[in-house]
Amino acid sequence: MDLSSKKLFSHKIKTAQEILDVIGARPRNHKVIMCHGTFDVVHPGHIRHMLYAKTKADILIASLTADQHITKGDMRPYVPEDLRAINLAALEMVDYVLIDHDPTPLKNLGKLKPDFFAKGYEYTAGAINLKTQGEIDVLDSYGGEMIFTPGDIVYSSSALIELSPPSIAIEKLMTLMEGEGITFKDLRNALAVLRDVSVHVVGDTIVDSYTYCSMIGGMTKTPTMSVRYEKKVDYTGGAAVVAKHLCAAGANVTFSTVLGNDEYKNFVLNDLEISGVNCLPIIDETRPTTNKNAIVAETYRLLKVDTLDNRSISEKITERLRKQINDVDAQVVVFSDFRHGIFNRGTIPTLSAAIPNGAYKVADSQVASRWGNILEFEEFDLITPNEREARFALGDQDSVVRPLAGELYRRAKCKTLILKCGARGIIVYRSSKLSFRAFFVVESFADRVVDPVGAGDALLAYSTLAMAVTKNEVISSILGNIAAGVECEHEGNWLVTPDQVLKKIDAIEKIVNYGLPS
Questions:
Q1: What pLDDT score was predicted for residue 121?
Q2: Tens of pLDDT along 485-500?
Q3: Which of 248, 258, 276 lies closest to 493 in space, CA to CA?
Q4: How far apart are CA 171 and CA 79, in angstroms?
Q5: Among candidates 165, 6, 4, which has minimal Cα distance to 84?
Q6: How many angstroms separate the CA atoms of 461 and 489, rounded?
Q7: Who is most buried in 103, 326, 455, 516, counting CB within 10 A?
């Protein structure tokens, strides 16, 4: 699908008032029939339903439920409302398409007053439910009639999607970009100005170690596994690698952290210096530099040995961090929380209050094995939790993802929420003056997943910098998700560069243009 697809059918996609202006008020010389549904995937059952409806009237209006009111199924709707409207408008038997922004079609039924309202045959089974009765009551109020279409073939869009989700990531992306007036040139322009944004990262440093061994066997007298040591490799992780990702994306990065007085401290400081990160370490003689050592044999992780102290930092160190946050002149401040001493209920209010006025405030909570709560970073400009962290913060293990994201956005009082959903991509909620697209989905751009480690860090880096320079949630989300896709295609916590993101943008545009030069 190219950007002109919607234009081909825009004369069919109208508001309720626009349709009323065309068809006129009752009584009419021509018959009007209306059908309503989600139409997440248009399948043969839908086609038969609408073909039959068209035989009963001169004009067929297809009404579809807006994204915001679809809460059935995970990551639904799978197809966004603009693209669903295009799908229906492309059908010859459909005369007009209406995106209904109310939870039920009752208001538009009363406004348009169609002669007939078509429902699927499955609605005749058993007692009439309350929703159908409400529709009948509106029809009776002006003399309309309910028609149940023959339905020897009945499909469920949700069932079809669960069986085999259609691959429409590019189509969904283009629909989103077209609806927001964004072009590939805008993405490239944004990428070009990420450089030199000043960012202050504050958070827990972790040294991730991998001790590689080979299996020898087990002990005969005790259930003890025996391995032979081969090598040990250390990586700078935690908030430190977030700082490195931002630096690789082109930012001028200052990093405030707490380290122990040990060899890992020296390793971290040397690595950050090589990476171009300006580190302002606070040395705590009473704790070690956090180290997480995975014992690996034949690609299997046998054991993880952590050397750490998760006590809250002292009041003295809290004050030194507060002063650094207040004194560093940065356009963006990122709190990267791994719950290893810096951030907790006692320190977060103090450190948050120290952020200079006008700085763009970002919080990321990565608590794989610790207790943390993204809701403690209240009223930040951007938060980027994953689904697990969102469920923990809300105490909700049952809701499907989209309503879960909406509730987290409301409770966090943030301006923008990017909820990371792994291979399914991201859901974005934003504060917008627009009456539509208060949330949107961007699917993953990883062509082949080699290693997802670091994808969230890459997304955070590019989304944060793009928001700082463009103030556009859609551009920042797309760039962040593309960077995450690049990250997934490499082993380990790969530092994604703007050139790599640009290459991925070029590849996506080539697909959109069917391989033709842009």
A1: 64
A2: 999 988 878 899 999 9
A3: 248
A4: 9
A5: 6
A6: 17
A7: 455
- Domain at 167-193+401-453+466-513, CATH from 3.30.2350.10, 3.30.460.10, 3.30.1130.10, 3.40.1190.20: 3.40.1190.20
The pLDDT score that the predictor gives to residue 50 is 87
Residue spans of the domains in the chain: they are 5-166, 167-193+401-453+466-513
Q: Which two tokens stand for residue 94?
A: 């459909």
Q: What share of the chain is helix, strand, coil (3-state, %, to 5)?
A: 40, 25, 35
pLDDT digits 0-9 by tens, 279-321: 999 999 999 999 999 999 988 888 999 999 999 999 999 999 9
Cα dihedral value 370, 372, 374, 376, nearest 10: -160
Select from 385, 274, 382 the least CA-distant residue to 334. Answer: 382
pLDDT one-digit tens code per residue, 223-232: 888 889 999 9
Kindly tell me if the per-residue pLDDT of 167 is higher than 70. Answer: no
When pLDDT is averaged across residues 240-249 and rounded to a whole number, the result is 96
Token reading at 10: 């825009």
**3 pLDDT more than 60:** no
Rounded CA separation 272/242 (Å): 11
Q: Using one digit for the tens of pLDDT, what is the confidence trace for 415-458?
A: 999 999 988 899 999 976 555 678 898 988 888 888 888 899 99
Identity of the residue numbered 389:
E
Q: 178-184: long-range contacts (C-beta < 8 A, 24 or more apart)?
A: 178/3, 178/6, 178/82, 179/82, 179/437, 180/437, 180/472, 180/474, 182/472, 182/474, 182/475, 182/478, 183/3, 184/505, 184/508, 184/509, 184/512, 184/518
Token pair in block for residue 50 = 């609408």
3-state SS record for 229-267: EEEEEEEEEEHHHHHHHHHHCCCEEEEEEEECCCHHHHH
How many angstroms separate the CA atoms of 399 and 74, rounded? 9
Residue 138 token pair: 């509106």
Q: What is the DSSP letter of 343?
A: -
Contact 200, 334 (CB under 8 A): yes
CATH 3.40.50.620 fits 5-166, yes or no: yes
Residue in the block written with tokens 């880096």: 461
Q: What's the confidence (pLDDT) of residue 22?
A: 92
